[in-house]
Amino acid sequence: MPLVHIHVIESRRTQTQLRQLADTVQQVMLDHFAAPNRDRYQIVTEHKPGQIIAEDTGLGFKCTDDIVIVQILQQGRTLDHKQAAYRALAERRHAESWLESSDLIVSVVENT
């Protein structure tokens, strides 16, 4: 049962776009984290401008106000599962043109 937090800046996306984003993340959970169908626990939080601070750590990435931070709290997934999820989110982001690569941050946290 992964618990997914999706953080965005408020008023940057419509409710339809937020739902599409959440649906995309859920499909990745089903496809790459072996989550059971209908095992969906997601929290979408919109933050006021300035309340998400994401600075470059020397990698040359510059985030904009379109930033999306996806934090997945999970247990029992292997490194292969995690890498597959990262890859799938990046590929879908690119294929669906919903986000620049520098504006996607994905963090997987192990809950034992």
Summarize this structure briefly:
The chain is of the alpha/beta class. It has helices spanning 15-32, 79-96; strands at residues 3-9, 41-47, 68-74, 104-110. The chain is globular, with a radius of gyration of 14 Å.
Major sheet: 4 strands, mixed
In the sheet with the most strands, the strands line up as: 2-1-3-4
Give me the strand/helix succession: EHEEHE
Number of helices: 2
Determine the CATH topology: Macrophage Migration Inhibitory Factor
Task: Flag low-confidence runs.
Answer: none
Strand elements, count:
4
Average predicted confidence as pLDDT: 87
Question: How would you sum up this structure, described in words?
Answer:
- The protein has 112 residues and is an alpha/beta fold.
- It has one domain (3-110): 2-Layer Sandwich (Macrophage Migration Inhibitory Factor), CATH 3.30.429.10.
- It is built from 2 helices and 4 strands.
- Strand 1 (3-9), helix 1 and strand 2 (41-47) form a beta-alpha-beta unit.
- The protein is globular.
- The two termini are 12 Å apart.
